[in-house]
Amino acid sequence: MQTLEFAVLDWIQANLRCGFLDAAMPAVSGLCDHGEIWVLLALILLAAHQTRRQGAAVACGLALDLIACNLLLKPLFDRLRPFALNPAVTLLVRPPLDASFPSGHTAASFAAVFALKFAGSPLWKPALALAAAIAFSRLYLYVHWPSDVLGGVLLGGVVGWIGAKLAKAIGRQRRPL
């Protein structure tokens, strides 16, 4: 499996690396270094009455992602990152210090996408485009294996869906009878 994953990463390095993407991909990835773009989106949605449930869905999904990804799965799997096994690659970003699986950037991004989708927000479509770019950036930057990114998409989908369900349940409980 690792041979196939190296083949994907090395193909990206050999065929897609260019000055434009070398400048753009660290910036795209940086939008989600600590989930900043998605936290900001949640706060903006929470601020407006008509989008409060959508904001709560994103916030719940991100909180669940933080617990599942960073506190449970990364320490459990403790997977080395690809650049650690192929030091010949020149990194465009500082080497991340935590474990590789799953991709936290990808998981947080897709948690927001799925929370928006299941909360009924039309913002899920542009969020999906940004989430896909962030996920690809992690491969381009050689800091995640393809299976880390796939794991992040799946984890994000689950916690985003649960986040939307939680926000809906909390909203029902808060309404006066």
Question: What does it look like?
Answer:
The mean pLDDT is 95. Helix 3 packs antiparallel against helix 4, helix 4 (52-77) packs across helix 8 (146-174) and helix 7 (124-140) packs antiparallel against helix 8 (146-174). Helices cover 73% and strands 0% of the residues. The protein is built from eight helices and no strands. By secondary structure, it is mostly helical. It has one domain.
Counting DSSP H or I runs of 4 or more residues, the number of helices is 8
Query: How big a fraction of the residues is strand?
Result: under 5%
Main beta sheet: none
Write down the overall geometry: elongated
The tally of strands reads 0
Distinctive features:
mainly alpha; 177 residues; 8 helices
List the helices and strands and how they pair.
Blueprint: H1 2-15, H2 19-30, H3 36-47, H4 52-77, H5 82-85, H6 104-118, H7 124-140, H8 146-174
Helix pairs in contact: 2-7, 3-4, 4-6, 4-8, 6-7, 6-8, 7-8
Quick recap of the structure?
The protein is mainly alpha-helical and 177 residues long.
